[in-house]
Amino acid sequence: MASFSTTLYNTVFKRNSVYVSTIFAGAFAFNMAFDVGIERFWSHWNQGKLWKDIRHKYVEAEDAE
Amino acid sequence: MASFVAKKYQTLAPTVRTLASGVPVASGISFRHAPADDHSHGGPRHDTPALFAVRFSGSAKTSYVTSSPTGVFQQRFLHTSVARRDAPQVPDFSHYKAKDDSVNRATSYLMIGAMGVLTASAAKSTVTEFLSTMAASADVLALAKVEVGMSAIAEGTNVIIKWRGKPVFIRHRTPDEIEEARSIDWKTLRDPQSDEERAKNPEWLVMLGVCTHLGCVPIGESGDYGGWFCPCHGSHYDISGRIRKGPAPLNLEVPEYTIDEGEGKIIVG
After folding, report:
1. Which residues, at least 6 apart from A57, have a Cβ–Cβ distance to it below 8 Å?
2. Which of B79, B159, B196, B219 has the most Cβ atoms closer than 10 angstroms to its Cβ?
3. Which residues of B touch A30 (CB under 8 A)?
4. Contact between A1 and B121 using a beta-carbon 8 Å cutoff
5. Same domain, yes or no, for B150 and B181?
6. Alpha-carbon gap: A29 to the closest alpha carbon of chain B (Å)
7. Catalytic residue status for B79
8. Are residues B175 and B238 in the same domain?
9. Which residue has better confidence, B101 or B42?
10. For domain A2-64, is the CATH number 1.10.760.10?
11. Residue B186 burial (10 A CB sphere; 0-12, 13-18, 19+)
12. Cβ contact, residue pair B103, A24, below 8 Å
């Protein structure tokens, strides 16, 4: 643990340039991951109500007409 | 404190208050020689403190204090060295202390960095959300698009639709026409453009029906090259909508469009 924290400090935190770049890269990755995760959760929560889930009912009906 | 080995008696000046000048007042003490003192010479004792240091008044009193046998020991209350811990610490925080300083340091930086990540992400979201309020709304975007059913257009026919006030030509090309459009040496043309660049799906050619010369609407399936012909000034376009002959400088413009194979629709816009 101690060696890991020391390695982390030496690689990331020691230089402010590296630290700030890591923060921005992390923010970018976090933003995408957050969006994808929320989207997935929302789709799961609203399963069965979305257009992609009920599309087959209406499109088939149109074809039958 | 260390353990007490012996008791020693000292006379201390019981200072109880301080004068306005800062001199401590020791009342009830006298530095005159005792009558039994053999070395009396009538004057004050040689170890009398100077008047600026302490003011005495009253008679002598002796108080007894317990002092350490090590002699002079002065507790320094202002110090930069680590305080001597010779008694058990109450309360005991050792359980909560980090075993290693580097863990503490890395944790602190990690927390600050995580805060920075969240803040930067939130700031980016705020800015993008604000900018998206300036974008066109979904109904406006929907009005700016035209959907055409692909099944209604037979192979080898033209369809002209209206999109944003302009005619759009859609041609369902036959394999022969595709072959013709792709086989010619397009690098020698006036406006060199390959057929692959102009048609996403080779069977479907979508382009604006506005002659690039002066804006007339060309006539389909005519002209010397089997494509379009502009009746105003005689520009000939080939089966890929490229200018081949006449005054027009450029090929017929290809608008932004997508082909939705699943729905069988071409969406222009």
Report:
1. none
2. B159
3. 117-118, 121
4. no
5. yes
6. 9
7. no
8. yes
9. B101
10. no
11. buried
12. no
Is residue B238 domain-shared with residue B263, that is, in the same domain? yes
* Residues B165 and B108 grouped into a single domain: no
Domain limits for position B233:
146-268
Domain count, chain B: 3
Do B112 and B218 belong to one domain? no
Chain B: nearest CA to A44, how far in angstroms? 23
- For an interface test with A, which of B121, B125, B128, B260 has the most A Cβ atoms less than 10 Å from its Cβ? B121
Which pLDDT value is given to residue B113?
95
> Based on the domain organization, do B151 and B131 belong to the same domain?
no
Residue B181 maps to a domain = yes
Q: Which of B33, B213, B233, B236 is catalytic?
A: B233
Residue B40 resides in a domain: yes
Compute the nearest-CA separation of B70 from chain A (Å).
43
Least confident of A8-22, B12-26, B28-42: B28-42
- What's the gap in Å between the CA of A51 and the closest CA on chain B? 14
> Which residue of chain A has the CA closest to B125?
A31
pLDDT the model gives residue A51:
87
Highest-scoring range by mean pLDDT, A21-25, B78-82, B92-96:
A21-25
Read off the pLDDT of residues B28-63 as tens digits, 9 standing for 90 and up: 666 665 655 555 555 556 666 666 777 666 554 555
What are the tokens at B93? 């925080």
> Are B182 and B203 within one domain?
yes
Name the residue in chain B with its Cα closest to that of A55. Answer: B263
Quote the tokens at residue B108.
């602190």
Average pLDDT over all residues of chain B: 77
* Same domain for B258 and B153: yes
For residue B171, the surrounding DSSP H or E stretch is strand B166-172
Burial B19-43 (b: 16+ CB within 10 A, else e): eeeeeeebeebebeeeeeeeeeeee
**Cβ–Cβ gap A6/B106 under 8 Å:** yes
CB atoms within 10 A of CB A46: 10
| Chain A residues with CB-CB distance to B120 below 8 A | 23-24, 27
Mean pLDDT, rounded, of chain A? 87
ipTM exceeds 0.90, yes or no = no
Rounded (10°) angle between helices A16-45 and B101-132? 60
